[in-house]
Specification:
Elements: H1 4-27, H2 42-49, H3 51-84, H4 88-99, H5 102-120, H6 126-149, H7 154-162, H8 167-196, H9 199-204, H10 212-221, H11 226-251
Helix pairs in contact: 1-11, 2-11, 3-6, 3-8, 3-10, 4-6, 6-8, 7-8, 8-11
Length: about 250
């Protein structure tokens, strides 16, 4: 029985990742179809030469970086506040945002933006996508950082205050350095979620703010295109490295 469990776990792991392996294999296939005809990097070259894909990638990176930076700052401060003073209602609302269907979140954000912009005369664009991504990334940052804070000794901050430091100085010089692995881990997770989001983004994006997932979905709907395999393989590998780094930082 002890020997069967590792084999079963390995088999399940291989089965779950089989589609990704097939995707990677056919991304270097010279044929446009799922029939192996020889090794070729033509689809990777085509992906990097596609102006629409490159513009969408730049948009996705800008949105993910901006949303991650804002969510990391706001989420860390929010987690510290919740650690200092228990607020069950706020904690519950953060957990609720994690389980809310993306389609519901997207519709509610669209309604909010339309109501606000009716008075400000502003249109949908990159700014609305960034605001939307910040709204759902904050919850992930708070949960990761708060988990780290619950293992942190509060007496260290109190000792710093007793020695003459202000509460802000104690936070910056004592608490923040200890939280840095969790903050970086949460930021990597937020970046991955932001870069990968499609449903909410498609709801609040303007005509000039298409992201990479939106463009890939549009290309895939028109039929099989090996360029999608190539760019998807790059995304999976890049985000996989970030997720592994995030998990390592959580354990440190």
């Amino acid at each position: 029985m002890k020997r069967l469990l590792p084999l079963a776990a390995t088999a399940i792991y291989a089965f779950l990742h089989l589609p990704l392996l097939v995707l990677a294999v056919f991304s270097v296939n010279s044929s446009r179809f799922t029939l192996w005809e020889g090794f070729s990097l033509r689809w990777y070259r085509a992906a990097f030469q596609d102006q629409q894909l490159m513009e969408a990638t730049v948009n996705s990176l800008l949105i993910a970086v901006a949303a991650t930076a804002a969510a990391a700052v706001i989420g860390t401060l929010c987690a510290h506040a919740l650690w200092k003073k228990d607020a069950p209602l706020i904690t519950m609302s953060l957990s609720l945002s994690l389980v809310t269907p993306e389609i519901v979140a997207g519709i509610s954000l669209l309604a909010l933006f339309q109501w606000i912009f009716r008075f400000l005369n502003v249109h949908l664009g990159l700014h609305t996508v960034i605001l939307a991504h910040i709204s759902f990334c904050i919850s992930f940052v708070v949960i990761v950082v708060l988990a780290r804070l619950r293992t942190f000794d509060n007496s260290l901050e109190e000792a710093a205050v007793d020695l003459g430091a202000t509460e802000w100085q104690a936070f910056c010089h004592v608490t923040l350095p200890n939280l840095m692995p969790a903050i970086v881990s949460a930021a990597l997770l937020a970046f991955t979620i932001s870069f990968d989001d499609y449903v909410i983004t498609s709801m609040v994006a303007g005509v000039d703010s298409e992201t990479l997932p939106m463009v890939l979905y549009a290309i895939a709907r028109r039929g099989a295109n090996p360029v999608v395999n190539a760019i998807s393989t790059i995304i999976v590998m890049a985000l996989g490295v970030m997720i592994l780094a995030s998990e390592r930082l959580k354990e440190s």
